[in-house]
Amino acid sequence: MLASQGPHAESTAGIAWLLFAGGTAIFAGVLAAIWLAARGPAGARDVLAREGMVLAMGLGLPVATLSGLLVHSLRTNAAIAPRDPPALAIEVQGEQWWWRVHYLDDQGRPVFATANEIRIPVGRSVELLLRSGDVIHSFWVPQLAGKLDMIPGRTNRLRIQADRPGVFRGQCAEYCGGAHAMMAFHVVAEPPAEFEAWLQRQREPAAPPRDAEAARGRDVFLANGCGLCHHVAGTGAMGRFGPDLTHVGGRLHLVSGWLPNQRGSIAGWIASAQHVKPQNRMPSFTQIAGADLRALAAWLEGLE
Questions:
Q1: What mean pLDDT is reported for the chain?
Q2: Which of 98, 168, 182, 222 could be 187's S-S partner, Cβ–Cβ 3.0 to 4.6 Å?
């Protein structure tokens, strides 16, 4: 978390290192004072016992130290406060226990939805509009920015920027219920040209089945009512309760960053959702036969 990869995280890390150094120095000073009071020469003990020394160390030093830290923090915040319009705006809504992501146009209207993964262009400032659909969550991707709470009924704004391509892990940092520990996400920073190509693909409907097995999987998906909770553009699945699956096969991870995105993980998640992530809102579909489950996983894997 201390390996900063963007200007906002670098400024935050600078404050953290200052706090670490100051805390260490104060701790060492307290230990030295304790040693002098217990084992030091009589003259040192007399000095430590004077009223002026007690006031200086117990009141003066904390006030001076905390005031200095406050001024430094305010200056740092002012230096990183956004002055230019962002290159991109993304709405992120915390759910129990996953992340709903909407990419917005210039008018602030949703263009398409994804889940548990945020893609951004390298070297460009991105503004995140953070909301919550249920309880208080906290958005934190430490290599790119500090943490910020997501509060029901309120929109908080956070700027992030990645200085190099990479995959950066994030986590909900506010206890929000049973599966809180498994509420992770990833920010994927790509070169601008690759990011624009990804944006174009996301605007398109789901790809048609690649073969007979994938076509069977699509039919299994619709027949078992999955479309009541999930949306897949270009099909009859119009649900909005759960994550949008239109391009789920192109994501790096499943289950809020918990499982690698591959066919076996998809099948295991569908069949044993409550075992993999207890208390999440998706039931385990144990009634789906093995061949149908494999076909369903094949179709979802192909939705890139």
A1: 92
A2: 168
DSSP class per residue in the chain: --S--SHHHHHHHHHHHHHHHHHHHHHHHHHHHHHHHHHS-HHHHHHHHSHHHHHIIIIIHHHHHHHHHHHHHHHHHHHHS--SPPSEEEEEEEETTEEEEEEE-TTS-EEEEEESEEEEETTS-EEEEEEESSS-EEEE-TTT---EEE-TT--EEEEE--SS-EEEEEEE-S--STTGGG-EEEEEEE-HHHHHHHHHHHTSPPPPPSSHHHHHHHHHHHHTTGGGT-B-TTSS-B--SS---TTGGGSSEETTTTEE-SHHHHHHHHHTHHHHSTT-SSPP-TTS-HHHHHHHHHHHHT--
* Fold match between domain 88-201 and domain 212-301: yes
In tens, the pLDDT along 251-261 reads 999 999 999 99
- Which residue is associated with the tokens 């548990």? 116
Domain 212-301 has CATH 2.60.40.420: yes
How many other C-beta atoms can be found within 10 angstroms of the C-beta atom of residue 16? 16
CB 161 within 8 A of CB 187: no
Domain ranges of the chain: 7-80, 88-201, 212-301
Over range 176-203, report the average pLDDT: 96
Nearest to 91 by CA among 147, 144, 157: 157
Which among 272, 96, 274 has a CA at the least distance from the CA of 180?
Answer: 96
CATH class of 88-201: mainly beta
Answer yes or no: are the C-beta atoms of 168 and 130 closer than 8 Å. no
The region of weakest confidence among 16-20, 219-223, 300-304 is 16-20
